[in-house]
Amino acid sequence: MSDPLNSRLKNLIVSTLKLEDVDPASIPDDAPLIGSGLDLDSIDALELVVAVEKEFGVKIASSEESRAALASVSQLAAYIRTHAPSDRSLG
Amino acid sequence: MPIEAADCRTPFGDARATSAALLGGRRALCPCPVLGPDGGDLVPLALLSARALGETAPPGWLPCLDGLAAGIPQGPWGGPRHPVFMTSSNFGVGSLFAFQRDRDPRHIEYCMPYSMSEVLRQRFGWGSNVTLVSHACVSAHIGLLLASRCLRSGSAERALVFTFDFISPFVTAGFHALKILNAGMPAPYAALPTGSIGLGDGAAFAVLGRPGSGFCLSAQTLHNEMHHFTANDPAGAGFAASLAPVRAAAGGRRVWLKGHGTGTLEAGRLEAEAFARHFPDSPLVSWKGSLGHTLGSCGLVELPLAIEAMRSGRAPGTVGTAPPCFTDNVATEAFSTAGFDGAVIAGNAFGGAHASLLLGHD
């Protein structure tokens, strides 16, 4: 059964980046997001960072941290679980 | 192309004062709220003394330009054969942001490139032969290139390149959103786990066409790698394409290197490696660890500093950087310029632009 946070993130990626031809469920949990896999670029990464900050209250401090957090959906979920404020629902 | 005169203004002052500060290892950067009066995270900024990050009407940095312009050699600037090339990455965008924020109509005359340049043209008594150049962080390099071409074609006797970039909450917020302006102090070319830039106020001029300074522009290059808006070709092709011609122009001359070196990791590594390949025996410095990145004015801000280094016999090292560095040629300490025939000053910009010039003796 799919992790609810992973599913939520896949929907967020598709809606934020307006990937109209991509079914969120088709995004593998561990496939690279940047450069290959979904082949997102640095501008897409920036939009995702802003969306994640708004949605989960998580502040990503540097471009290096951004690259590590956005390595895959699973990595992003793990980052959010580690850094999200305790009062935020992650389901 | 002979350089008649050049000078700059940084938070340390003119070229001589700035050079002395850099040789002393001083940083102009200090932690400031990224949104100025609206607060926000602390990020490294280098503002002119007594200037706050937030625009006034008229802009608080205009007296700085008065001081800089007073040092320009006399001439019918803006006349038919004395063109002015005015360059900036953002001209009056700080005033535009301030107008959007507080709707004070006094900001309007400063907030557009054309209106801002008209303010300066009239303030300094220049004619209408003024060309505006805005191409992100190679703006000043392009201004120098256009001025040189104008002189070589015979359509001008002398040319003035005048550049300025004063940071504003709009600019700092933009770089902060990109996650490259953050809490860390910049350490150009240092092999660190995270990188950060600083942003700084900067202005400068150069007059080309007649001897005067004892130095000249021996070569200039401009290249766009056409890879991506905000990232470099990971193979370093853009840096290689820009440096190869200036390497060929240098021939057997011994040169030192003033790179772009903002403090970002990926671009810094690519740049350092490209310099090490093309100029294996040349020390590489960046002064942005002290002055911050002066955006569109960079390159021309450093030109009089490089001239001062050649005249005085001592070049400042890469202030703010300690080993280990990406490559062995990074000079973290000041060094003697005796025995060097010139210097390469390089820069690059969003959109994939690369520019460089070779400074030599006249």
Q: Would you summarize the structure shown here?
A:
The complex is a heterodimer of chains A (91) and B (362). In chain A, 51% of the residues lie in helices and 0% in strands. Chain A is mainly alpha-helical and 91 residues long.
Number of helices of chain A: 4
Number of helices of chain B: 10
The profile of the biggest β sheet of chain B is: 10 strands, mixed
* Quaternary form: heterodimer
CATH homologous superfamily (4th level) name of the largest domain in chain B: Thiolase/Chalcone synthase
Number of domains of chain B: 2
What number is the mean pLDDT of chain B?
96
What is the structural class of chain A? mainly alpha
Secondary structure topology:
The complex is a heterodimer of chains A (about 90) and B (about 350).
Chain A: H1 4-16, H2 42-56, H3 63-69, H4 73-83
Chain B: E1 2-9, H1 15-23, E2 30-33, E3 42-46, H2 62-69, E4 84-87, H3 93-102, H4 113-124, E5 130-133, H5 139-152, E6 159-165, H6 169-177, E7 199-200, E8 202-208, E9 215-224, H7 237-250, E10 255-258, H8 265-278, E11 284-285, H9 288-291, H10 302-312, E12 314-315, E13 335-336, E14 342-349, E15 353-361
Parallel strand pairs in B: 3-7, 4-5, 4-6, 10-11, 10-14
Antiparallel strand pairs in B: 1-8, 1-9, 2-3, 6-8, 9-15, 12-13, 14-15
Helix pairs in contact in B: 1-10, 7-8
Folded structure, characterized:
The complex is a heterodimer of chains A (91) and B (362). By secondary structure, chain A is mostly helical. Chain A has a domain at 4-14 and 32-83: Non-ribosomal Peptide Synthetase Peptidyl Carrier Protein, Chain A. Chain A contains 4 helices and no strands. In chain A, helix 1 (4-16) crosses helix 4. The longest helix of chain A has 15 residues, at 42-56. Chain A is globular and about 35 Å long. Chain A starts with a helix and ends in an 8-residue tail after the last helix. The mean pLDDT of chain A is 89. Chain B is an alpha/beta fold and 362 residues long. Chain B folds into 2 domains: 2-208, Thiolase/Chalcone synthase (Peroxisomal Thiolase, Chain A, domain 1, 3-Layer(aba) Sandwich); 215-361, Peroxisomal Thiolase, Chain A, domain 1 (3-Layer(aba) Sandwich). Chain B has 10 helices and 15 strands. Chain B has helices at residues 15-23, 62-69, 93-102, 113-124, 139-152, 169-177, 237-250, 265-278, 288-291, 302-312; strands spanning 2-9, 30-33, 42-46, 84-87, 130-133, 159-165, 199-200, 202-208, 215-224, 255-258, 284-285, 314-315, 335-336, 342-349, 353-361. A 10-stranded mixed sheet of chain B has the order 5-4-6-8-1-9-15-14-10-11, with helices on both faces. Chain B has a 3-stranded mixed sheet with strand order 2-3-7. In chain B, 58% of the residues are buried. The model of chain B has no long low-confidence stretch (mean pLDDT 96). The interface between A and B is medium-sized, with 13 and 17 residues.
